[in-house]
Input
Amino acid sequence: MDTNLAVDWFGIGKGMGGDVLALIYDYGIPILCGVFVIVVGFRTREPRATIVAVIFAGIVGGLAAQMTFLSDTTAETITNYDGGQPSQMDTDQ
Output
C-alpha cells in the first residue's frame, strides 16, 4: 500500500467538516496557547521564560488565524509547480 502521509492528514481534516475545523482554529488553538502561557508562567516563575512563551503562543495563534490564507497560498504554489496555469504572481505587473 503506497500512501502519502500528507494526503491522509488532509483527508482526515476534510472529513471532519468545515465547522469543526473552524471551531478548532478559531477557539481551540487560541485557548491552548493561553493555557500554555499560564502553565509556563506558573511552573517557571521566570519572566524570560514567560515572555518567550507569549511570543511562541502569539506565533502559533497568528498562524492558526491565517490558516485559510496559508492553505490557499500553498495550494496555488503546488499547482504552479505541478504544471498548472500561471497565476498573477508569475507575470510582470
In short: The radius of gyration is 18 Å. The mean pLDDT is 79.
